[in-house]
Amino acid sequence: MTKDDFTQKTLDSEQMMYRISMSMLKNNADCEDAVQQTILTAYKKLNSLRHEEYFKTWITRILINECNKILNNRKRTAQLKVIESRSDDTFTHRTELKEAIDSLSPKLRIVIVMKYSEGFSITEISRTLKIPEGTVKSRLSQAKDKLKKSLEENDEIGHASLNMRSFV
Predict the structure, then answer these.
(1) Which of the two residues, 156 and 130, has the higher pLDDT score?
(2) 5 and 76: one domain?
(3) How much is the pLDDT for 77?
């Protein structure tokens, strides 16, 4: 892959990386750090990308690893209370579905975001997260059940079907 190809594919993936990191980190500054570090790491390890067609999966795996590093650092400094800023437009206009997705466990939330927000296939999610496809399907099913229950409890959508793309 040439430097120009890398630059273009990275630019094409930037918004996707930001949304995935936001689903994990819930903090703009941390998301920006994770995306920047992901791009730097990907560039340094570009020779480890065996097949260009898997660029999206490859860079997403690097991003998830970076987000996990940030989350682990947060745990180490747990005595400092992390205050989540709600002044950002991203949080100001939350929908009930977005709030329900945010309340999911990280394992369920990441598969929902990758599948319905970013359009990853079951196979791509499986490869990226290094889990079996059956596990991906199971987590998607669990997440949808929890979302449905959460939304029904709020009486916002009653028994209507979920449109997962509406949370973006």
Answers:
(1) 130
(2) yes
(3) 56
